[in-house]
Design a protein that fits this description.
Radius of gyration: 21 Å
Helix content: 25-40%
Number of domains: 2
Structural class: alpha/beta
CATH topology of the largest domain: Aconitase, domain 3
Number of helices: 16
Shape: globular
Strand content: 15-25%
CATH class of the largest domain: Alpha Beta
Length: 465
């Protein structure tokens, strides 16, 4: 029988099947952060039970950590209490904890791959919707709720209905200035924010084969934004080269044994998907959003679509444009912006900073722009300094902040003021996502860099040699 990659990983982790109900899945890796874990740990305390497999659980502080002066006490009382609770609970249950100041600290979906916690064929969960990032390694990874966090802590299992299977194939070659972020925003614009609801997506085709591992992480990260339960890409030589010799990956004979399993993690030739979609990579241009959900995206050179051509309903569509203070038919090129945010679990890796630096090198930040450049981890921060990127950024008038989720969801002090426009490399542009009344334009690091030096929406291809 021919199986998909998703089938192979899912079925191998089933502990038991419930008739007319969900499967009970064993979870290989459980990532924990400070926001969704306190109530879960309280549930364990109330039941007087311990974490079943603490060695399979990894905790880091990221969501509401400050990105400046991390050596000082956290000012916000709620954030401070959540951080203290995570440290206390991790120590109580013998869980690895990477808090503020720890060399391994960073965004949960950045540090997992960096240290080899993320591995092919694994099941990975976290109380965070963008856990789908880890699917870039051929893992089944998805976000869970607080009650499910408690379930995994106590049993190392979770009950889940098996999603349907979708394959999205993108062939062809990407043009100059088109990044993995553009590919993801393009797909979401075609499917809408609900087009993959009920599915787990496998990405296939030449574009993803050629894409770097960090690029694949960006695509899988955004799977949730089209309604999918998660996304994954079959592991290949790039995958194995990336994870080899990282701290938590197998070594020696254990590596050889793992490779026997990992090398067979692909979709069989005649495997059947519930839905197949095919796109032409040659047709993708740099993308930008103009509305209040990730599906409202267009090629940067095009105008804002007419309401009559939208499936979301004319009133809902116009409400979104009213919030953004945009009009149908307007060009996005030349629109003034106020903030630029480079970072998040979507685009806070070293490749993203390399791309940003290519555009701003030898140029200056626009005087009307406030820029928050936030690495996804201390490892990324170190690489920025070692590769000379920090020097380029400083010469262009930018400052580097400390690792954290930052302005992605504005749970710390990094909030975009009401009415201001932010070109953001993060994953969501809902109303108020980056601060009450803020207006978010999702884009790639290249588009963000071009906006940062011009003070307006600019086609980055104009600045690429």
């Amino acid at each position: 029988m021919s199986n998909t990659l998703f089938d192979k990983v899912w079925d191998s982790h089933i502990v038991s099947k419930i008739n007319n109900g969900p499967d009970v899945l064993f979870i290989d890796r459980h990532m924990v952060h400070e926001v969704t874990s306190p109530v879960a740990f309280l549930g364990l305390k109330n039941r007087n039970i311990k974490v079943l497999f603490p060695e399979k659980t990894f905790a880091t502080a990221d969501h509401n950590t400050p990105t400046i002066n991390q050596h000082l006490p956290v000012k916000d009382p709620l954030s401070a209490n959540q951080l203290k609770a995570l440290e206390k609970n991790a120590n109580l249950h013998d869980i690895s904890y990477w808090g503020l100041g720890h060399e391994k600290n960073g965004i949960v979906h950045v540090v997992g791959p960096e240290y080899g916690i993320t591995q092919p064929g694994a099941t990975i969960v976290c109380g965070d919707s963008h856990t789908s990032t880890h699917g870039a390694f051929g893992a089944i990874a998805f976000g869970i709720g607080t009650s499910e966090v408690e379930m995994v802590l106590s049993t190392q299992c979770i009950m889940q209905p098996k999603p349907k299977k979708m394959r999205i194939t993108v062939d062809g070659k990407l043009s100059k200035g088109v990044t993995s972020k553009d590919v993801a925003l393009f797909i979401i614009s075609k499917l809408s924010t609900s087009g993959a609801t009920g599915y787990f997506v496998e990405y296939a085709g030449e574009v993803f084969t050629e894409m770097s591992i960090e690029g694949r992480m960006t695509v899988c990260n955004l799977s949730i934004e089209m309604g999918a339960r998660g996304g994954m890409i079959a592991p290949d030589k790039k995958t194995f080269d990336y994870i080899k010799n990282r701290e938590f990956t197998p070594k020696g004979k254990d590596w050889d044994k793992a490779m026997v399993y990992w090398s067979n993690l692909n979709t069989d030739e005649n495997a059947v998907f519930d839905k197949e979609l095919i796109f032409d990579g040659n047709s993708i241009q740099p993308m930008i959003t103009y509305g209040t959900n990730p599906g409202m995206g267009i090629s940067i050179s095009k105008g804002i679509p007419k309401a009559e051509n939208q499936d979301t309903g004319i009133n809902t569509y116009k409400k979104s444009l009213d919030y953004m203070n945009y009009s149908e038919g307007e060009s996005m090129i030349g629109k003034k912006i106020d903030f630029v945010f480079l970072g998040s679990c979507t685009n806070g890796r070293i490749e993203d900073f390399r791309e940003f630096a290519k555009i701003v090198k030898g140029r200056k930040k626009a005087s009307n722009v406030t820029a928050w450049l936030v690495p996804g981890s201390h490892k990324v921060e170190k690489a920025i300094k070692n590769e000379g990127i920090l020097k380029i950024l400083k010469q262009a008038g930018f400052k580097l902040r400390e690792p954290g989720c930052s302005a992605c969801l504005a749970m710390n002090d990094d909030k975009v003021p009401a009415g201001k426009y932010a070109v953001s490399t993060s994953n969501r542009n809902f109303e108020g996502r980056q601060g009450p009344g803020s207006r978010t334009l999702l884009a790639s690091p290249l588009v963000a860099a071009a906006a940062a030096i011009t003070g307006e929406i600019t086609d980055p291809r104009n600045y690429i040699k």
